[in-house]
Design goal:
The protein has helices at residues 3-21, 39-59, 62-74, 85-95, 97-117, 127-130. It has one domain. By secondary structure, the protein is an all-alpha fold. Keywords: Signal.
């Protein structure tokens, strides 16, 4: 796989994962069982997808991570049909707190570690978030 395709693949996976944890307007609560997908299956798919994205983030170079973040800033989001399986899973991940927690824990940790490794986020600056002066 070429470097640019690898970046796009990583970017696509990261977008899917991050779109699951970021709110997009007022979505109705998507109950996976109402979508015809058993809750356990939805949880397993979202968990596996999040683990895959986290692994790709961890394995990416600092340059690839910077490129990915730039591309994500430009992107307005992909249009996924709510009727498709992917759309149903994304709707569930956007609205179900349990699924949001899975994505945030797995992808968020990998992304934060990569940002610190690449000097894109300094752990010392995080202290400012806790200083309420």
């Amino acid at each position: 796989m070429s470097r640019s395709k690898s970046i796009l693949s990583l970017g696509s996976c990261a977008f899917v994962a991050l779109s699951a944890i970021l709110p997009f307007g007022a979505h109705a609560q998507a109950d996976p069982s109402q979508l015809g997908i058993p809750e356990e299956t939805t949880f397993a798919i979202i968990t596996r997808m999040s683990d895959t994205v986290a692994a790709r983030i961890s394995a990416s170079s600092c340059k690839d991570t910077r490129d990915l973040l730039k591309e994500m800033r430009k992107s307005k989001g992909s249009k996924t049909s709510e009727l498709s399986l992917e759309g149903q899973l994304l709707a569930s991940a956007r609205t179900q707190p349990k699924l949001q927690q899975v994505v945030a824990n797995r992808v968020g940790t990998a992304l934060a570690l990569k940002l610190m490794e690449c000097n894109m986020m300094n752990p010392d600056t995080l202290g400012a978030l806790f200083d309420k002066k």
